[in-house]
Design goal:
single chain, 196 residues
Length: 196
């Protein structure tokens, strides 16, 4: 639901939402680590603006200026996203865009699979800081880093399954889109020759 709202709004909505989220995370983290509310608010604003600017410059995969998704209407962008990420139907006129976005999703899923082990490094680091905070007697710091450790471990544990599901759905969407582009009946399991 949230992802569709972002895709429907385009780059500006994506930039603002990413900046707000990053600002909130930065502010809460600063409040947990250092304490003063003024520092947390300043860090949140600075982090949010900085991340928002980065998102405005980088964009999001498949929808950068000039790429197929950036040229579509908001409702068509959502239809393409749905077809690739949720296995929805592929309308003929959107088949080239579905194929382009499916390739982006396949590439991202492969990259997530390759980077899987890296995500176990973050919990290891946060465990070290959490143990240090626990030993030093800083309850707030220890609680914050133990919570981060649990979050990072859950993320690292769920990532491989998520990448596999993303890869499977994107491959299926790419296959259906190619069938539409090549004129094959997507319901015909025998291919374009109809079993001949």
């Amino acid at each position: 639901m949230m992802q569709e709202w972002l895709w429907r709004g385009g780059p500006r909505r994506w930039t603002v939402a990413a900046g707000l989220f990053c600002g909130l995370v930065t502010g809460v983290s600063q409040l947990a680590v250092s304490g003063p509310a003024e520092v947390a608010v300043a860090s949140g604003l600075g982090g949010g603006v900085l991340f928002g600017v980065v998102m405005a410059l980088v964009g999001w995969p498949g929808a950068r200026r000039g790429e197929p998704l950036s040229l579509l209407s908001p409702s068509d962008r959502v239809a393409v996203m749905r077809a690739v990420q949720q296995g929805g139907a592929v309308p003929d006129r959107l088949a080239p865009s579905v194929l382009a976005f499916a390739r982006v999703e396949i590439s991202a899923a492969r990259q997530e699979r390759r980077q899987g082990p890296i995500f176990f490094v973050l919990p290891a680091l946060t465990i070290g800081v959490a143990v240090g905070g626990t030993v030093a007697g800083s309850v707030r710091l220890a609680a914050y880093f133990w919570a981060l450790t649990v979050f990072f471990l859950a993320f690292a544990w769920l990532l491989p399954g998520r990448a596999e599901r993303k890869l499977k759905k994107a491959r299926e969407a790419a296959r259906l889109a190619e069938d539409h582009i090549n004129g094959a009946n997507p319901d015909d399991s025998c291919g374009p020759m109809g079993g001949l």
